[in-house]
Amino acid sequence: MSKSHADERSRILLSDSTEDIYKKVNAALTDSDLKISYDPVRRPGVSNLLEILSHIEGTPCEELVLEHKSVSLRALKERVSTTVANHMKGIREIYSGLINDKTGYLDSVAEEGAQAACANSEVTMKLVRTSLGLT
């Protein structure tokens, strides 16, 4: 999975439904080797799935390989899908609440950020003008 790839199917978004997450993980490219192993160079697809699981669960990839030594790639993808979907559920609810908020909360946060950025840029530009002798 890659956030820099142009294809939206290459990454999991905060707004993705549980169904979308399952589809994307199940469509993740792997290889024809039936054994689960962690080798980012020779098996980048399988290794990526293990890394995703590792980051969420806090378990080293090598330990995950041992846990999955007798399961199929399909079973690994199922576990990754379920783990990611469960992990993202609360985050997605908060995100959705913020996006659908009609109170103007996000606008007020953006306005505060713009004001802070403007104040910082004024200080910086004053220093630049002074350094260049333009004052």
- Percent strand equals under 5%
Biggest pleated-sheet summary: none
Indicate the CATH topology of the largest domain.
Tyrosyl-Transfer RNA Synthetase
Which spans have pLDDT < 50 for at least 5 consecutive residues? none
Helix content: 55-70%
Mean pLDDT, all residues = 92
> Which structural class best describes the helix and strand composition?
mainly alpha
- Strand tally is 0
Overall number of domains: 2
* Cα-based radius of gyration, to the nearest Å: 22 Å
The protein's oligomeric status is: single chain
Q: Label the overall shape.
A: elongated
Order of helices and strands: HHHHH
Give the N-to-C terminal Cα separation: 52 Å
Quick one: CATH class of the largest domain? Mainly Alpha
CATH-defined architecture of the largest domain: Orthogonal Bundle
Family: Belongs to the class-I aminoacyl-tRNA synthetase family.
Protein name: Tryptophanyl-tRNA synthetase
Keywords: Aminoacyl-tRNA synthetase, ATP-binding, Ligase, Nucleotide-binding, Protein biosynthesis
Pfam family, one: tRNA-synt_1b
Write the layout of secondary structure elements.
Elements: H1 18-26, H2 44-57, H3 61-67, H4 73-99, H5 105-132
Structure description:
The protein has about 140 residues and is mainly alpha-helical. About 65% of the residues lie in helices and about 0% in strands. The chain contains 5 helices and no strands. Helix 1 (about 20-25) runs antiparallel to helix 4 and helix 2 (about 45-55) packs across helix 4. The longest helix has 28 residues, at about 105-130. The N and C termini lie far apart (about 50 Å).
